[in-house]
From TrEMBL:
Keywords recorded for this protein, A-Z: Membrane, Transmembrane, Transmembrane helix
Major site of localization recorded for this protein: membrane
Subcellular location as annotated: Membrane
GO cellular component, one term: membrane
Function: Required for growth under high-pressure and low-temperature conditions.
Keyword check for Transmembrane: yes
Keyword Transmembrane: yes
Bilayer topology term: Multi-pass membrane protein
Protein name: Defect at low temperature protein 1
Transmembrane segments annotated in the record for this chain: 12-35, 47-68
Family, per entry: Belongs to the DLT1 family.
InterPro entries according to UniProt: DLT1
Domain of life where this protein originates: Eukaryota
Length: 226
């Protein structure tokens, strides 16, 4: 934009200087010739020819300067990226700037008035998974026992959880059969797992994330041993 303004102003100044110079020369020449040859017909004819030629030169130069200025302006405009949207008052006429500002204000008003769809509203005990699917925190927490059982069964098939044994008793059996796991992580996992089971309230997202952190550490302590 600065380059465009410099080109525009400089070409306009050059045009004004050239036109002023030519007009001054023509005016001075006209005055001198009239005074000196006012009674000489042949000289007057020559004078008129000179004046006419000067006018032609003036017209040609003026057209050339205006054309060059228009070409430079068009070239500068073509360098503006197509995705550029001018929003400054200096970039457009005042009425257009006011219209753009009004539309932007309308857009902001609509955006502020938007309401989430019913299925997008927050529901206690639910959240979005990594794949964007809606998950129930307590249900997802309960399924971790199945993952734990499958991991242990891959080590010793007979130690798969039967779905009825209390979780603490299950870990006692794993300890007796030398299945390696971190006892601190196991205790934290049991406490949170049983807490979800007996608590009538829905789990919060923070509680669920803390539970999954403990479960991840527990699984890592088992898998690292094999």
């Amino acid at each position: 934009m600065l380059r465009f303004k410099i080109l525009s102003v400089s070409s306009l100044l050059i045009f004004i200087i050239v036109v002023s110079t030519l007009l001054g020369v023509c005016g001075l020449d006209l005055f001198i010739q009239i005074v000196s040859i006012k009674d000489d017909t042949s000289s007057l004819t020559k004078f008129l020819f000179i004046v006419g030629a000067a006018c032609v030169v003036l017209i040609v130069v003026s057209v050339g300067i205006l054309s060059a200025r228009k070409i430079r302006i068009r070239s500068a405009l073509n360098q503006i990226p197509r995705v550029y949207v001018p929003i400054r008052e200096s970039d457009m006429p005042r009425f257009l700037y006011s219209h753009v500002q009004k539309k932007l204000a309308d857009s902001a008003s609509v955006r502020l008035s938007l309401k989430p769809l019913s299925e997008e509203r927050h529901m206690d005990g639910y959240g979005r998974g990594t794949d964007g699917q809606l998950i129930h925190f307590k249900t997802a927490a309960a399924k971790t026992l199945l993952v734990l059982s499958e991991t242990v069964a891959s080590i010793s098939p007979s130690l798969a959880h039967d779905g009825l044994l209390p979780l603490r008793s299950y870990f006692e059996i794993l300890a007796q059969t030398n299945i390696p796991f971190n006892p601190q992580y196991a205790e934290a996992y049991i406490t949170r797992y049983d807490g979800f089971a007996v608590n009538p309230n829905e789990a919060t997202e923070f509680e669920y994330l803390e539970f999954m952190k403990v479960f991840t550490l527990l699984m890592r302590s088992i898998q690292q041993a094999y």
